[in-house]
């Protein structure tokens, strides 16, 4: 009862503290604030003189009829706006320390470079909880210290009844104290702590960091690994390293040793991984190597509260290792001393909506800004990074051997499907090879990048094909639940009994998907334990984790999977990988398709024979003599990259060109085109150092009832493209676009 009353009083005190009045009109300052609105400006608000505020703090301000959260970016003497139009800051949020200047600079850079509104850029970098107008409660044991304002405060001036607040301030005059200790002072100290934070007299701070930690050093490094570790550890200041290591060469071990070195120096390390790789297993793995080091992960799969807490641990410096997907590149890390980007070529580092940033590229900027090393790791680096390593901008580090002796790279065999009859998509030699693995009690993986039963359903009488009404795509047959589904817009319908056009009942599935291969293999190997891993079978939470356990425990003989299975997983008993129909990637309209296919096949092939057993990869293709397969058989990434770079150079594509893609979509056919034609005319009119292509329908010209088109502009100099964008973007902003949506994608990865 008593506790409640006190809490209530404390809360009233807090309201008194934070309510900002206009008592002192001569002592106002103008704060320029980033707000989550689609305008490329900051917003001016005034703050009464006495209110403590640091740049980087979150504030609550009136915007239209709402109260919204913003970030204080700058302080000004006066505003260009008329005085009567300037509203006041309502509250300053003191629940977490201000965002550091370094992060604000990074956000400004991203806003400029990606031509995305500064407010939306800044706010999208925060966890959802920190974008809400309510202050957040911190669970973690943060440390607190007196703020600048608090240091000048005379404790005796506080009202007598605020005993607990006085005791907290007295304690902090001696040294920073952990929140846990402060909260144990009295039953009302949580409320008192909150009140002091809100008043701006105390601030959260980093705990004193100890540089000693436990490191479980599992392996003696190979010479190549040691060389790589030494090169990075020796680096003083910024340096971008490309760690090119074949699959199984022990890149992770290099990361672990680098982490150890940086922890010893008292630093924080950020490891960026592709979306699909950040699993509890990976987290546990790093925990097991550094058992007493605080480690957090940051990704969109976390609950909002957990993500905010992890972010705060990173911001306070308490979390020394941060594992994260692309969004974690915007985490404040006061002691950041190394950034690692694993599988740097992975497409998931590029955000495909909103702020279309490349986390890898932003990471490089951030390392440069901070003057620290960054390591990009991959068995199949992006051509951009490889080109930079060739030209000397990045420092190339190589791991050419598998770490575990005597493991070697798998043999790769290409089967010509033009010469071999297929039974339900599977050739006799592949079936034989699977049979051999079954007898030896080894695992096989059949890789096919198409989920569902068959890519399309066809009427044999009239040639009708199952097409999506809302998209320019086919409906995929899913036999498990007898539906036709669109993988682009999600539309779904039951499989028709007869052809909707001619009424014939002879409808046939055309082509192969994971489900159909599963049925075929079950028919062929009735006793084998078969597991299909794709987005359909792993939809339920925890399903993929359970499956991975089955695979590891040897409860599975044959795996069928899409690209989900290609990456980063170590299945020691897997000795055969079969690749079905990869040919779409060989002659695609997307100029990056063959680069991606090589990366994917190298990754998936790398799953075979990782331990003491020799692996084999069998590829079924109509083009066995294609140079891609030649390089794949020879495990020669460098040769393949050379071929691609030559092609790109002569065709005038990245990495020799820098691109921006303007995409538009509208409900009426032609509207997006019309907008883009106006945009194109404006671009040509500017007459700058860029190539302006023609307006074209998108690769998927209609999706979810929207017609889509695009316009590509490129230049051989990044700076020329940026100069052009600075003039073109305001013109685009000024065009009437009520009926369409458009977006700019700088350094686009998808077309
Ligand atoms: P990559 O990420 O390059 O594909 P991993 O880091 O997964 O390779 O390493 C492959 C395997 O080699 C792992 O099982 C790892 O424990 C082992 N390994 C790595 N480095 C060494 C080493 N120096 N000595 C022995 N085993 C090692
Ligand atoms: Zn028909
Ligand atoms: Zn559709």
Give an account of the 3D structure:
By secondary structure, the chain is an alpha/beta fold. The chain has 5 domains: 6-131, PriA, 3(prime) DNA-binding domain (GIY-YIG endonuclease); 143-205; 223-252 and 265-280 and 293-399, 3-Layer(aba) Sandwich (Rossmann fold); 411-454 and 511-647, Rossmann fold (3-Layer(aba) Sandwich), CATH 3.40.50; 658-746, Alpha-Beta Plaits (2-Layer Sandwich). A hairpin with a 6-residue loop joins strand 22 and strand 23 (492-494). The N and C termini lie far apart (63 Å). Residues 468, 470-471, 473, 486, 488-489, 491 line the site of one zinc ion (ZN).
Task: Write the SSE topology.
Blueprint: H1 2-18, E1 28-35, E2 43-48, E3 58-63, E4 66-76, E5 91-93, H2 101-114, H3 118-124, E6 143-146, H4 148-151, H5 163-174, E7 177-178, H6 179-183, H7 189-199, E8 202-205, H8 223-234, E9 239-245, H9 251-264, E10 268-272, H10 280-289, E11 295-298, H11 304-316, E12 321-324, E13 336-342, H12 359-370, E14 373-378, H13 383-390, E15 395-399, E16 411-416, E17 422-423, E18 426-427, H14 428-439, E19 443-447, E20 456-459, E21 476-478, E22 483-485, E23 492-494, E24 507-510, H15 514-524, E25 530-533, H16 543-552, E26 558-561, E27 574-580, H17 593-605, E28 616-621, H18 627-634, H19 637-651, E29 658-666, H20 671-686, E30 691-703, E31 706-715, H21 718-734, E32 740-746
Parallel strand pairs: 9-14, 9-15, 10-12, 10-13, 11-12, 13-14, 16-28, 19-26, 19-27, 25-26, 27-28
Antiparallel strand pairs: 1-2, 1-4, 3-4, 3-5, 6-7, 6-8, 17-18, 20-24, 21-22, 22-23, 29-31, 29-32, 30-31
Bound molecules: adenosine-5'-diphosphate (ADP) and zinc ion (2 copies).
């Amino acid at each position: 009862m008593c506790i409640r009353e006190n809490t209530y009083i404390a809360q009233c005190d807090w309201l008194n503290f934070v309510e900002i009045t206009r008592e002192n009109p001569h002592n106002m300052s103008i704060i320029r604030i980033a707000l989550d609105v689609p305008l490329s400006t900051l917003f001016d608000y005034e703050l009464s003189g006495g209110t403590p505020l640091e740049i980087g703090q979150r504030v609550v301000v009136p915007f239209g009829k709402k109260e919204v959260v913003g970030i204080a970016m700058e302080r000004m003497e006066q505003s260009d706006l008329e005085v009567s139009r300037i509203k006041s800051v309502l509250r300053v949020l003191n629940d977490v320390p201000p965002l550091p200047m370094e992060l604000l600079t990074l956000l400004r850079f991203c806003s400029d470079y990606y031509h995305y509104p500064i407010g939306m850029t800044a706010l999208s970098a925060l966890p959802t909880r920190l974008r809400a107008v309510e202050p957040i409660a911190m669970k973690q044991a943060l440390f607190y210290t007196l703020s600048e304002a608090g240091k000048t405060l005379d404790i005796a001036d506080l009202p007598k009844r605020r005993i607990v607040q006085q005791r907290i301030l007295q304690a902090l005059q001696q040294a920073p104290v952990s929140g846990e200790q402060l909260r144990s002072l009295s039953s009302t100290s949580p409320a008192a702590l909150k009140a002091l934070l809100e008043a701006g007299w105390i601030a959260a701070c980093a705990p004193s960091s100890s540089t000693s930690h436990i490191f479980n050093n599992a392996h003696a490094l190979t010479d190549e690994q040691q060389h790589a570790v030494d090169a990075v550890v020796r680096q003083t200041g910024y340096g971008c390293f490309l760690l090119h290591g074949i699959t199984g060469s022990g890149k992770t071990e290099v990361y672990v040793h680098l982490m150890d070195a940086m922890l010893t120096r008292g630093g924080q390390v950020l490891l960026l991984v592709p979306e699909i790789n950040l699993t509890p297993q990976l987290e546990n793995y790093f925990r097991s190597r550094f058992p007493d080091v605080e480690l957090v992960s940051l990704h969109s799969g976390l609950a909002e509260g957990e993500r905010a807490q992890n972010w705060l641990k990173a911001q306070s410096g308490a979390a020394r290792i941060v594992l994260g997907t692309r969004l974690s590149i915007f985490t404040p890390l006061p002691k950041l001393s190394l950034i690692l980007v694993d599988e740097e070529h992975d497409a998931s580092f590029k955000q495909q909506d909103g702020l279309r940033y490349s986390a890898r590229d932003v990471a490089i900027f951030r390392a440069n800004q901070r003057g620290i090393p960054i390591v990009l790791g991959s068995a199949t680096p992006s051509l951009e990074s490889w080109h930079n390593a060739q030209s000397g901008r990045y420092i190339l580090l190589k791991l050419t051997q598998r770490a575990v002796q005597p493991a070697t790279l798998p043999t790769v065999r290409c089967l010509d499907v033009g010469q071999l009859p297929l039974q339900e998509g599977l050739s006799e030699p592949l079936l034989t090879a699977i049979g051999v693995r079954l007898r030896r009690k080894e695992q096989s993986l059949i890789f096919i990048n198409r989920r569902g039963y068959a890519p399309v359903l066809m009427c044999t009488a009239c040639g009708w094909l199952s097409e999506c009404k809302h998209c320019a795509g086919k409906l995929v047959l899913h036999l498990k639940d007898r539906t036709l589904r669109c993988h682009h817009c999600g539309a779904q319908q039951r499989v028709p009994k007869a052809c909707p056009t001619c009424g014939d009942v002879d409808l046939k599935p055309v082509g192969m998907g994971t489900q159909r291969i599963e049925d075929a293999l079950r028919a062929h190997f009735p006793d084998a334990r078969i597991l299909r891993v794709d987005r359909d079978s792993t939809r339920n939470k925890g399903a993929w984790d359970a499956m991975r356990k089955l695979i590891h425990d040897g409860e599975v003989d044959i795996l069928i999977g899409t690209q989900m299975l290609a990456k980063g997983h170590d299945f020691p008993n897997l000795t055969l990988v079969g690749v079905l129909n990869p040919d779409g990637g060989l002659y695609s309209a997307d100029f990056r398709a063959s680069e991606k296919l090589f990366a994917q096949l190298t990754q998936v092939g790398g799953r075979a024979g990782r331990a003491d057993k020799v692996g084999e990869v069998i590829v079924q293709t109509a083009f066995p003599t294609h140079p891609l397969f030649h390089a794949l058989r020879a495990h020669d990434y460098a040769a393949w990259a050379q071929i691609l770079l030559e092609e790109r150079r002569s065709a005038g594509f990245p990495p020799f060109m820098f691109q921006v893609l303007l995409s538009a979509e509208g409900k009426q056919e032609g509207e997006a085109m019309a907008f883009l034609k106006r945009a194109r005319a404006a671009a040509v009119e500017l007459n700058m150092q860029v190539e302006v292509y023609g307006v074209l329908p998108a690769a998927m010209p209609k999706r979810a009832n929207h017609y889509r088109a695009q316009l590509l502009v490129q230049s051989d100099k990044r700076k020329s493209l940026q100069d052009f964008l600075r003039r073109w973007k305001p013109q685009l902003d000024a065009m009437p676009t009520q009926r369409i949506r458009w977006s700019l994608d700088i350094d686009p990865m998808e077309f």
